[in-house]
Design a protein that fits this description.
The structure is a homodimer.
Chain A lengths: L1 H10 L9 H14 L13 E4 L13 H16 L7 H7 L3 H6 L1 H12 L3 E2 H14 L15 H12 L3 E9 H12 L6 E11 L6 E10 L5 H9 L6 E4 L5 H8 L6 E8 L6 E2 L10 H9 L2 E4 H4 L9
Parallel strand pairs in A: 1-3, 1-6, 3-4, 6-7, 7-9
Antiparallel strand pairs in A: 2-5, 4-5, 7-8
Helix pairs in contact in A: 3-6, 7-9, 10-11
The structure holds calcium ion (2 copies).
Amino acid sequence: LVALAATAALADPLPSWRDTDAKARLVGFVEAVTDPASGDYVTPAARIAVFDNDGTLWAEKPIYFQVLFAIDRLREMAGDDPSVLNSDALRAAAAGDMATVAASGAEGLLEIVAATHSGLSVEEFEAEVRAWLDVARHPQTGMTYAAMVYQPMLELLRYLRDEGFRTWIVSGGGLHFIRAFAEDVYNVPPEQVVGSTGEARYDAEGPAPRIAKDPGVAFVDDGAGKPLAIDARIGRRPIFAAGNSDGDFEMLEWTTAGDGPRFGMIVHHTDAAREFAYDREGHVGRLDRGLDEAEARGWLLVDMAEDWERVWPAGN
Amino acid sequence: LVALAATAALADPLPSWRDTDAKARLVGFVEAVTDPASGDYVTPAARIAVFDNDGTLWAEKPIYFQVLFAIDRLREMAGDDPSVLNSDALRAAAAGDMATVAASGAEGLLEIVAATHSGLSVEEFEAEVRAWLDVARHPQTGMTYAAMVYQPMLELLRYLRDEGFRTWIVSGGGLHFIRAFAEDVYNVPPEQVVGSTGEARYDAEGPAPRIAKDPGVAFVDDGAGKPLAIDARIGRRPIFAAGNSDGDFEMLEWTTAGDGPRFGMIVHHTDAAREFAYDREGHVGRLDRGLDEAEARGWLLVDMAEDWERVWPAGN
Ligand SMILES: [Ca+2]
Ligand SMILES: [Ca+2]
């Protein structure tokens, strides 16, 4: 029975994916690049796979979970000192007015992030994120945020790693925010997390040196920033890239423009019943150009409602 | 005989290190952190070792080899278009006036680098570096630059990797410059090279997208920049750090201030006969504060003349 179960597992590395074209294309790609007899064989060192995080590995509605963390932290800070709420975006955030927060765009979000992600060391900040993830609940589903990862994507990450890929996260979200849970939740170690970064400072004045997080944004890992960060951090062009919004367009373009076998995929949020349905409209996870160009560019458009047997991991 | 040779290799992972205190301390540290029965045991994932490059893994006199590359490239460019020589530092560089170049300090060096490291894609730039390394010769030794690596340090890199460490380069030199040879020469893959970076731009206008290198410095990976880059790139505090100048001070401080077993080492250039002798004076590889504080901080000061049986690899 154990042997049978093992065989079944080998036979289907992606059990939460339905037997649609999406799954066939994924498996076909992986089998081609890992078969030494294949003309598409790729050496393990070059098997680099990059994944966007928000909306690709976990959910992002009503707004990026990092913003929900920032809002909770902002309220806590404002409880101690109300003067921290010194802008419209900050006041809207503390009041829970998500529509105004979302409409404030990247600028408003960065303001909220700057106010709540500084004045701590990196270690202290990551501990805050982990403590929040332990207790916070999603306003609509009531689930913990770490439970709102996509089971089919967890299987894909694991399948790629089992086949000799290294899996990297390349996210518009904050580097230290994602590192706080990426190893536990995705099995992605800190050195394989690429994200947006704030200003930081080496501080050797106290009893022990620390990396201090300062206000101010140093690098936004979105759009054309993604291939730049991939070059700076990885130094090799990935052969596989997965995203869900136009912020991933250049990452997919860069990945799939390389020589040899390449795979680009976009998670298309089509499942209002089990998750959320959205694409061309809205401020969070907007997918417009990618939707228009995916087919012509040979990118797989994953239809969550059709291609996924389940969305969330069991046991939620 | 094969078995005997294998035993001998196991018995001495550092054959180019003499049997001095330096070697004993290195081996003692590695044995302690890799022995599961030891109170100092460190899991493989946390066995991060960081190495400065210039003056730590390869030589750096009369000036950083990257500057010698830049000067050769500048002359080639000036041959095509003399108007590129539009500053004192650039004119001194093209004239081979090393004293003036060295005295121009970081600013002059960065100017030379900016003029010669831009206008190319990353791939084109790395190909230029490799082509140069194939033919260029050191002005004093007549050796290729890749041959001017320190054999004892190659052994140390390999020894650490054999014992489950991941070895990273954390250099003030240019990221793409070092990546052009790090895998061949040090067995360090591109994702484990940290360095200074210039401005770059994602360019999707041409027939194929490219990462274009622009003039201008984005990040200087020296001094306090080193622990910041280690945080940004690795996301874990190393347990082993090796450097040779005060530009490595903060990297060693950050590394050795962590909990548990830690190792900091400084390569002290004491060997005028076989290499170069220098420390407190000069513009390149200045070691002053590190020399004063190494002992009190428990950092190993490697005496090249005393501790190394040989400097260069065989076959040069
Ligand atoms: Ca996304
Ligand atoms: Ca150095």
